[in-house]
């Protein structure tokens, strides 16, 4: 019998050495003190597949006092829910451990794992912003349009929201913008318009108070069962009563509107014997300060905790808001939540206009100038579609042009004569404007121009006229001159006689007399210049 047990143990050891498991632990934290935190353990095999079989899961955390549980599960997944009451535990980082045993005929440990989880003093969640039925991104810079109301809403994590719904009897939200108090609301939303604040940055803070007792501030004050200390701007007018108070002090070191260090000491409860205050009085007070439709802060008389329109920057009476190194006493019966968002306000894209002609002849270049108004920088692109196109509102730019000033030019050459739809997309940080523009390209029948006929004919006629005129001028000039030909007979070779001066003089005078008589002869039609004398 002993031999069989040894063999079985050896087999189990070998089997355990061959198989390996991966245990994954997750939780839905962080959660606020008093809320339920849920743990989930998932057992996987070598192939990252859910392990099959029956397993024993042993849970335990390192809180004081600790929580522990053990479950038998047929499958690879098991869950464990734990609550950390605020009167027993402090907020902080805790650790949970899960050990898994294989449960069959025999039981042996196969794996274990540990994981950290966070229990917080403040409610967990975030402030969501919504404008024009669209949620604004919470990552990076948050840009808000100046022309539409902005809805601020607090969204709590699922375990904290469940805790508030079950445990809270009164929920009040105090809203601050740049440390200026705008009032309170009984719901989780606050609507505000930021027109006229273009180019500015705003910090929105909200303090949520969830209490399980009944209290009223200023005038008459009733403390709920247990101790109470709530920050109040003005204590005058409170009925004189002898009350022993044990406080919970929170040390807050805030440099960027976020508590960095929080130390909590557990209060000692003290019975309160003050008179009751009707719930209707509190309801009327909260409703009178409901900011679901608030727009601008208006100075008012002090009421409740804070004054509307007052700047609380650096004043140590506003928990977690606009404070630096302040000691803040809190009510141990209340649960607080602090949420903050920074926004940048911009003008949307508006007044999109175009200058230029959209009816073009085939072959002409499209040249249209566009402009708009709003806060830069701007992103611009143009999409072209032949024929008709219906705008869907979901058009986007694949490649866009960045503009510091909303002025741009659309130039394009269309090869074919047709109707085209240009979709001009202009966007900035808060809006997108999609504008359709129709361009018509039409054909024109080409006729020979009159100049094509007139110019050649005119030039030809002018050339003919010039040629004719030149010929006529040449003929006329030729007729104007007579060419005279003198026939001299130089064939006679007679030697000239030697004459004396007297003989030559006599001969010259004789020739002159004879030439004059020939000129005056009747019927003579020849001019003297055409007469020739005697050759003797």
UniProtKB/TrEMBL annotation:
<keyword id="KW-1133">Transmembrane helix</keyword>
<keyword id="KW-0732">Signal</keyword>
<dbReference type="InterPro" id="IPR045219">
    <property type="entry name" value="PKAT"/>
</dbReference>
<feature type="region of interest" description="Disordered">
    <location>
        <begin position="269"/>
        <end position="299"/>
    </location>
</feature>
<keyword id="KW-0472">Membrane</keyword>
<dbReference type="GO" id="GO:0005886">
    <property type="term" value="C:plasma membrane"/>
</dbReference>
<protein>
    <recommendedName>
        <fullName>PKD/REJ-like domain-containing protein</fullName>
    </recommendedName>
</protein>
<feature type="signal peptide">
    <location>
        <begin position="1"/>
        <end position="20"/>
    </location>
</feature>
<keyword id="KW-0812">Transmembrane</keyword>
<feature type="compositionally biased region" description="Polar residues">
    <location>
        <begin position="276"/>
        <end position="296"/>
    </location>
</feature>
<feature type="transmembrane region" description="Helical">
    <location>
        <begin position="450"/>
        <end position="475"/>
    </location>
</feature>
